[in-house]
Write a structure and sequence with these properties.
CATH class: Mainly Alpha
CATH architecture: Alpha Horseshoe
Number of strands: 0
Order of helices and strands: HHHHHHHHH
Keywords: Repeat
CATH topology: Leucine-rich Repeat Variant
Oligomer: single chain
CATH superfamily: Leucine-rich Repeat Variant
Pfam family, one: HEAT
Organism: Davidia involucrata
Shape: globular
Protein name: TOG domain-containing protein
Number of helices: 9
Low-confidence stretches: none
GO molecular function: microtubule plus end polymerase; microtubule plus-end binding
Radius of gyration: 15 Å
Number of domains: 1
Strand content: under 5%
Mean pLDDT: 93
Helix content: 55-70%
Length: 160
């Protein structure tokens, strides 16, 4: 593209991805986990949704755990946040995310339509940040994953 948004500076948020924040994402108390997810969203807002990859490997690692949270509302909030982080990072998200896309895609296995919709929204954000070819290996694996039911595979197939 001819410059546009890509020419705007990206903020280094690594100083805000504190051990306390990362620990909060793993807290046994769901309220603290939710507050931590919301804190990540606030960091993205403060950076005008344009961030550098510095410090995001650890962040993605902590967010990955929330995609398997027993509290489904937190999983949906995490999907939204993962989408937000990928949008804010742009193309560099591919290197920092360490395969979190396969964890995102597993959420299509949920029997709740709303969960699958949140997953597809996260995929939209991802697609806006990277080219589809970077996503294809993950999508291919998801389409053959027996744990992702018929509905989830259909949703993904329709999305592609």
């Amino acid at each position: 593209s001819g410059g546009g948004l890509d020419s705007l500076p990206r903020e280094d948020i690594s100083g805000k991805i504190t051990p306390t924040l990362l620990k909060g994402l793993e807290s046994p108390d769901w309220k603290i986990r939710l507050e931590s997810i919301e804190a990540v969203n606030k960091i993205l807002e403060e950076a005008n949704k344009r961030i550098q990859p510095t410090g995001t490997v650890e962040l993605f690692g902590a967010l990955r755990g929330r995609l398997y949270d027993s509290n489904k509302n937190l999983v949906m909030a995490t999907l939204s946040t993962v989408g937000g982080v990928s949008s804010a990072m742009g193309p560099s998200v591919d290197k920092s995310s360490k395969g979190i896309l396969s964890d995102v895609l597993k959420c299509l296995g949920d029997n709740k339509k709303h969960m699958r919709e949140c997953t597809l929204t996260a995929l939209d954000s991802w697609l806006a940040a990277v080219h589809l070819d970077k996503m294809v290996p993950y999508i291919t694996a998801a389409l053959t994953d027996a744990k992702i039911g018929v509905e989830g595979r259909k949703d993904l197939f329709d999305w592609v």
